[in-house]
Task: structure prediction
Amino acid sequence: MNTFDILDSYRKNLEETQATDIVSFDGQRFSFMEQAAILTHYLKLQGHKEFSKPFSTFGEIIKNEWSQALHGRTVKRKDGFINEPCVSYGPSLFAEIEEVPFQPIKKPKFTFIDLFAGIGGFRIAMQNLGGECVFSSEWDEQAQRTYYANYGEVPFGDITKESTKNFIPEGFDVLCAGFPCQAFSLAGKRLGFAETRGTLFFDVAEILRRRQPKAIFLENVKGLAIHDGGKTLKVILNTLDEVGYVVPDPKIVNAMFFGVPQHRERIYIVGFRKDLGITKGDFTYPEQKEVTKHWIDVREEKPVQAKYYLSTQYLTTLENHKARHAAKGNGFGYEIIPDNGVANAIVVGGMGRERNLVIDKRQKDLTPTTHIKGTVNTEGVRRMTPREWARLQGYPDNFRIVVADASAYKQFGNSVAVPAIQATAKQIMKVLKSHNTL
Result:
């Protein structure tokens, strides 16, 4: 039983005893997942007094209560609830924190926070450069499960809540965020901080205004550059200027030039706090040179299960769909990536997986393992696997995939491309060091 299963069992125990929340000294109430976030952040940061401070009071309370309940002891709480004992699960709470594949840097060169974290693409890139994450936030619970399995930390949920923002430590160096692009209200004329209210970007801006880290690194879809005739990007840039940051011209970066065989273009926005004396010209994005890897380089080493192969009926449906669009003069429809080719951007929904089909004839046992219409095609046409999508995004093979395939595809499709993020972050660190700020 993994730790998240243990947590699920404990949550059910709390729900059965109507003790889902705890009441803090100042009357705040925290959901089960918020408790898990507070506690795991507390445990990970105990050696850093300045960064563990926001979590210490509540973390110690939750640690004591959960430890007692998980080890078969009844907990009588000040708020009147009684936690009935759960089954004992072992000698220590969250023992797996010490066993996750991506451990914190022992002697970090800088610190960062990971907002809209997904499954931690920013985190891997920043840790590879010597950074330590001191706060993470991600609302999707399946992504939280994957994040915990790999980093030993449950991200906080809703970053729009004031109670969540209050847990962000002071004094971290870099804010990282792959924030969602929501519709921006452009009714005002200032096109600045006030016009971002009601969007998730406003929460990023508000955190910047309050915490004033040395640098920011934002990622979004390529379309942000032209959204609403460029007005949305103008709002974002003016807002960043208003909260105190110098922002070099954003750049659309393609991941396929940074060691992953995926044509994935995303806009990167980098900024530096004005009082550091850094100018726009001091920063340059990493040079995009050439494609060095192809699909065959990330293909599974062994034949994959028959469930990833398309049924004959579904393949026919895709062929007919493509033919109808071809007759209309457009290129919509499925696509097969050749072994020496580069994958299309992996995305969630629509034709996300069907635009990245491959031919792989290594599997000889095509007995259906799921309910399909027709038989499994004998042409070798299949979808890529979640592990192959992980590799397309630059995740190392020790990254743990702990959710069902549907969730895994969603998580990797929504992720950042780790090598491209790392190359850009390296340039950020170079500038900060050159100005003696690290």
